[in-house]
Every structure is written in structure tokens, then in C-alpha cells.
Amino acid sequence: MGIVDVVSEFCYLPSTQHRHIKKHKQLQTVEMRVRMDCEGCVRKVKKALEGMKGVSSVSVEPKQFKVTVIGYVDPAKVMRRVAYKTGKKVEPWPYVPYDLVAHPYAPGAYDKKAPAGHVRNVVADPAAAPLARASSLEEKYSSAFSDENPNACSVM
């Protein structure tokens, strides 16, 4: 060991420049259902969201009770903020377009309150999912009489 090594051990200073790497939030579209009865409710919801950090745009459709928020935000925080600031019940947007559901008129999927061209999202709802999906036995029977199946029954 040389003199330089001995001196360097005594003069060791820990590095104080630790850089914390922040993860940037992804651009998200948050859709939620909030019951709004009047223009005052619409204004209150918009005001609660426009003051939030990371929000790029807010659109409100009062007839459908739909609020859409686009920005670099956390969906859970957005929903909590609307519920806290307005005192209203907030839930994620429960509807999807009609074309995305295999059996849109199944008891769990069809909803009279849904906007035109939309049905309830049964893929995300585990309670209604078995009602809206065909079982393997049902698939066999329906494909047996299908025109697209070359081995189908020719009785029809």
C-alpha cells in the first residue's frame, strides 16, 4: 500500500449527488359516469377537474352522465377528486360499443339505460360474464348448423 491509498481512504467522501429518476405518467383517457342533473353540476365537475395537475382536457356529456378526462393523470386519483369535490357517486364508464360484445342481448349485457349503440361491459364484470359468453357446447351446436362450416349438417 502506498501513501496515496492510505490518504485516499481517510479522505473518502460519500457521493451526495444521487439522482432520483422520476417515472413520467402516461397519457391516459379516463372515462367515468357521474350523475349530473343541471348546469351547476356540470360546472362543478369541470371546475374540480380543470384545476388538477396533469389534466389536458375535460369533456362532459350531461345527457349520458359521461365525463372524459385526457391527461397525464392517475385514473383512481381523478375519480377520488371528483367524488370529494362534488359529493357525487363516481364509477368507471361501464359501457362499450355494441360491436365489442359477442352476445349483446344477454341478460347481463343489455341495459336500457345505456347510450345508443352501447351495452354494458360484461368482459370486465365477472358476475355477468358467464351469461354473455357462449359455452363450448353452445359453440359446437351453433357451428354445426353454420353456413361457413363445410362439414355442417345439410338437412337445412
What is the gist of this entry?
By secondary structure, the protein is an alpha+beta fold.
- The CATH topology assignment of the domain at 28-93 is Alpha-Beta Plaits
Strand order of the largest sheet: 2-3-1-4
Radius of gyration based on Cα positions: 28 Å
- From N to C, what is the helix and strand string? HEHEEHEEEHH
Q: Which structural class best describes the helix and strand composition? A: alpha+beta
Mean pLDDT across the residues is 77
CATH architectural type of the domain at 28-93: 2-Layer Sandwich
What helical percentage do the residues reach?
25-40%
Number of helices: 5
**Shape label:** flat
CATH class of the domain at 28-93: Alpha Beta
List unreliable stretches of 5+ residues: none
Question: How much of the residues is beta strand, in percent?
Answer: 15-25%
Distance between the termini: 96 Å
The count of strands amounts to 6
Main sheet specs: 4 strands, antiparallel
Domain HMA: 27-91
InterPro entries: HMA_dom (IPR006121), HMA_dom_sf (IPR036163)
Pfam family, one: HMA
GO molecular function: metal ion binding
Would you write up a description of this structure?
By secondary structure, the chain is α+β, with helices and mostly antiparallel strands. Among the domains are: 28-93, Alpha-Beta Plaits (2-Layer Sandwich), CATH 3.30.70; 100-141, no CATH class. Helix content is 29%, strand content 19%. It is built from five helices and six strands. The protein has helices at 3-10, 39-50, 75-86, 129-132, 136-144, and strands at 28-34, 55-61, 66-71, 90-92, 95-97, 118-120. It has a four-stranded antiparallel β-sheet, covered by helices on one side. Strand 2 (55-61) and strand 3 form a beta hairpin. Helix 2 (39-50) crosses helix 3 (75-86). The longest helix has 12 residues, at 39-50. The chain is flat. The termini are far apart. 12% of the residues are buried. The mean pLDDT is 77.
